[in-house]
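Bumping with the actual sequence this time:
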Amino acid sequence: MRRSIGGTGVRGCGGVRIPQAYQSMACKLISCHRTPVPPYPRIFLLLLIIILNSPFSIPHSYARSIPTINRDKAREVAREQVVWRDRLCPLSTAARDFLKAVYGKSSYQGLTPEQVVYGWRLRPDVWKDEPMILIGDADLRRQLHIEGDYARFSELFDDTLGYRLSALGSDLPERMRQLARETPAATGLDERVGQIILLTQGRLFQPRPAGMQPLPSWRVEAEILWNHTPLWVIILLPIAAAIACLAIKRS
């Protein structure tokens, strides 16, 4: 399914193109050796290529299409510089932080954070019915009549009661009602809903002002690379580097 919204090339999510950033970096490390490389470092560099490529090497299939920008467009907009939390950063960072805060993960049904952000901005009428607002507290889910760990934005609003979180504990005395609305679970949910509202209103982050000095391209690329590196790779790399150094000393 393909459609165009505002010239952004909106389409249903499809296959994944494997980025070459990690592979080319590791290959450069190998090619820079002018002297024969001992076997252990060679093995380490080979494992490094495999490890860093693995999160992106498995193609995804989807049961349905969700309107958003395609992956090529997502890679392009990831480098747009925006003001987010009082600092200048790539859109990749703001989008990832938003998705982690709302959904608790760095991807949604195979979509990148940039695709999620643009999906909400372009088609909130569709995305409001996506079960992606994390409610980790079982008691809060019960009070709101939410099934599963995730709520739809549309589920949190009622034609009669309005914002359902505001009506939480309406059958309780006033003091207890206030306490029910100020629990960590309730305030956390309220913040997630607030972020979505700000996003759809175009106020969650701002484009870089004309008078602000842009970030250098190398810093943008480094931040995007960091954003897309899984936590387990970040933890594993220092260990692997230490093993490689030990192997080089022994060789």
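The tokens above came from a reply further down the thread. The first helix runs from residue 21 to 31.
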